[in-house]
Amino acid sequence: MIKEIASLMLLSVVLFGGCQTESLGAVHLEQVVSPTKQVTTKPEQETNSKLKLIGSSEDEQVKLYAIKETEDAIESVTLDINGRTKDFDWSISHHSGTKPQLFYTDLTGDGKEEAVIIIQTGRGTGLDNYEIHVVNSDNLSEIKVQRYEDIVAEHIKSRISKNDDGTLAITVISQGQVGNFNYDFDPAPDYHQGKLAFGGVVIYTLDNHKIKLSLPGSIGISPTYVCDFNITYTFDKADNEFIVDQIEVEPVEK
Prior knowledge:
Blueprint: H1 2-32, H2 44-48, E1 52-56, E2 62-69, E3 73-81, E4 84-88, E5 92-93, E6 101-105, E7 114-124, E8 127-136, E9 142-145, H3 148-155, E10 156-162, E11 168-174, E12 177-183, E13 201-207, E14 210-219, E15 224-236, E16 241-251
Parallel strand pairs: 8-13, 9-16
Antiparallel strand pairs: 1-2, 2-3, 3-4, 3-5, 6-7, 7-8, 8-9, 10-11, 11-12, 13-14, 14-15, 15-16
């Protein structure tokens, strides 16, 4: 009888141990497949939805998001071209009054669109300044656009003198072409300015897949604009750069 009881106790221990082992194994399996441990990758659109959208092209292929922002300006941005993104340290003032202009168009003539971003950088009495950025849609590298300062230094010469009747005689030489015209008064008689000044107004636009720049020449500190330089750019494939192509000069009518 004692042997039978001992056998029954031993069998119970074996059965209980087996059930316990199966239970622990089941718990371990549930921990492996628990949804809380799975890794997921968020789509690009969901990531960008957390950023502040500050502009997009008409077809929404190009979008601009703010990364770092202060009370006065956005100090860095994320550019999104068809879902591909890159950060740039472009500054956008909150006081300019004009939102960034975004375009998606072929400016290089290779059949592929580039992203174009035009940003107003300053405005005020007699002042209206913009900058332009052109970005390759394949590798998101920025394509250089020749600065207006370099265009003036290389292609524009001017001379100002006073006529006997108090009017100003202005001579402009651009791309080898000479133009002469009079301005009907001297807005700054004590300033003694010998040539035109530039930089008060710098306005970029796009026209028929071309970059255009309106760059008036001025006299005086105020300033007073006496002639307009309408500049058209062309793409230099060898240097991967937009450079001046044509310059047209028009006197300002009073």
